[in-house]
Every structure is written in C-alpha cells, then in structure tokens.
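hey can u check if this looks right to u? its 237 residues, i copy pasted from the old doc so theres a chance i mangled smth
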Amino acid sequence: MELIKADWTGLDKQQFLNYLTSLKNPQKVEFFARVINTRQPILAIPTPAIQKIARDISKGNFLSFLKLNINDYYETTLLNGFLICKINDFETFKTYLIGYAKKIDNWACCDQLRFNINKNNVGDYFALSCQMFNKAEPFARRIGVRIWFKLISTDFLPKIFEIIAATNQNEQSYYVNMAIAWFLCECYIKQPAQTKQFLQRAKLNQFTLKKFVSKCCDSFRISAIDKQNLKNLIKNA
C-alpha cells in the first residue's frame, strides 16, 4: 500500500486497516497480549515494523492520517503515538498528545514514545509533563513521568522532586508508581547528590520505595555501598 500521501481521507481508512491486518502474526497474538496487557485487539506486528510505517506516513501529510482517528488495534494506537511525536509545532503536538493519552490503556503506548526535547522547548515540555501528571488517567500520568526522564539533567529536577514528594503517598496506580521508581533510579545514577537529598526528606509510598531500591540494586551503575545504603532506606521507612 502507498503510505506517503498528500492527503488521507475516510476512503483510505479501510484500505489501510486491510493492509495492516495482512501483517498480523496469529502465533504471537497471545504472547503480545500477555506482555502488553491491553483491552484493544492485537495484531502482533513487531514494533520496528510499526515504526517503519510511521516513518513512511510522516513523509507525506501525516496530520491528515491522524485526523482519521484510527484506533481499531493496539498497533494503530501506537502508530498514532509515533506520528504525534513527529509533529514540530508544539501546541499542535500537545493537543494531539493529550487526546492520545485519553485513549491508551497500556504501558507500551507510553514508554515507546520519543520526545524531541531541546533547549528551546524544555520549559514547554516541563509544563506539559505537569499537566499530564495531574490527569485522572493513569497512563496520562505515566506519560508525564516519561517526559521527566528527559529532564533529569535540567534545572527542573528540583521541581519534579517536589511534585513526587507531594503526590506519591496517595498514588494508587501500579504503572505510575513503577514509572516513578524507574525515574528515581535514573536520577540516582545521573544526579546522585540531588537525589540523595530528596530521599532524605521525601516520604514515598512503600511500593514505590521498594521498587526504586530494587531497580537500583539491579543496576551495574550503582556501587555496592550505595546499594546497601538504599536497602537501609526500606528498613528505616
């Protein structure tokens, strides 16, 4: 199917879905469903193939593709996410990302997004991450945390720590708590002094704290002494 189009219309939708379903791998559907844990139907198309389709569509008028709102499968939703991250205009990108976050129901549609953050838009991304983190939808909050990963080495890290300290005790979502634990592990590796200060004053919920320490103990980038000190955090919590 020709994927580079000057304009996508409603007439193209079924043709595209037919093309995509032709790539289905029935033998892998059960495995994909177990790993991704989504309510959406799954075609079990490998992520690199979806990324290739996104690259091809992005060479044409991909905003017209996004306007078709094709969310019939996990793969089409993920494809939309890849395309949204290719939008250059920040306000347009933000509008689509907020809409996308309302539709997703799994970690993979969060964690595979790639954000084009630079010195010119870092403030906009921080504001967006806060907006996402305040959403009711847990996977919107997880996207907010995923943006924070790109902000670890910026001046926004203390503000992010403040947000976590103020909210984590009440966070109930497994997927948000896991993302925060993973984020704090990266902070401990890349910004150890700031992160240690944060840990001394912040009260994390027990689940997040234990997962954070577990991730740190699994990392080869953290010393044995630091790992033991982190284990003591759990004993003293």
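Residues 217 and 226 are 9 Å apart (CA to CA).
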